[in-house]
């Protein structure tokens, strides 16, 4: 992926993520509404169910509560906090570190052991969500 497209994509996803967090993390948090199509169709939580609530808790400083809701939320919150600063750093200092890190991460994830580990972690998270009755 070209560097400019990566910056545009990441910025757009961050804006969508913060908008989503504001809308569903605050306005609709206690209404019982779930935007999860998988859960609405099957009645079972998906691996990412609770991520919005988890990120919202992490942003409020309730890290343990966020992890208990969905551990994936901690990763998403970290990404949402770090990436804006990373983009600003690259722009201010005319660096290209984000695309370089993206390519390096992509190479690591594309290896079989890494892919298997990530799939197992996602499956464990999914089992955790189902066990908790999310």
Descriptive report:
The structure is a single chain. By secondary structure, this protein is an all-alpha fold. It has one domain (about 5-130). It is built from seven helices and no strands. Helix 3 (about 50-60) runs antiparallel to helix 4 (about 65-70) and helix 3 crosses helix 5 (about 70-90). The chain is globular, with a radius of gyration of 17 Å. The N and C termini lie far apart (about 35 Å).
Work out the count of structural domains: 1
Report the total helices: 7
> Tell me about the biggest sheet?
none
Kindly provide the radius of gyration, computed on alpha-carbon positions and rounded to a whole number of angstroms.
17 Å
What is the average per-residue confidence, as pLDDT, rounded to a whole number? 90
Shape: globular
Strand composition percent: under 5%
Classification by helices and strands: mainly alpha
Task: Break the fold down into its secondary structure elements and pairings.
Layout: H1 3-27, H2 37-42, H3 51-59, H4 63-69, H5 72-92, H6 97-109, H7 112-132
Helix pairs in contact: 1-3, 1-5, 3-4, 3-5
């Amino acid at each position: 992926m070209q560097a400019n497209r990566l910056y545009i994509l990441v910025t757009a996803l961050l804006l969508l993520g913060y908008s989503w967090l504001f809308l569903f993390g605050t306005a609709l948090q206690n209404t019982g509404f779930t935007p999860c199509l998988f859960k609405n169709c099957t009645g079972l939580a998906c691996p990412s169910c609770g991520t919005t609530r988890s990120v919202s808790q992490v942003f409020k400083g309730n890290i343990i509560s966020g992890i208990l809701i969905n551990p994936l939320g901690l990763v998403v919150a970290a990404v949402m906090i770090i990436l804006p600063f990373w983009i600003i750093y690259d722009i201010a200092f005319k660096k290209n570190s984000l695309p370089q890190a993206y390519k390096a991460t992509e190479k690591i994830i594309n290896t079989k052991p890494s892919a298997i580990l990530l799939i197992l972690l996602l499956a464990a998270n999914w089992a955790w969500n189902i066990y908790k009755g999310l």
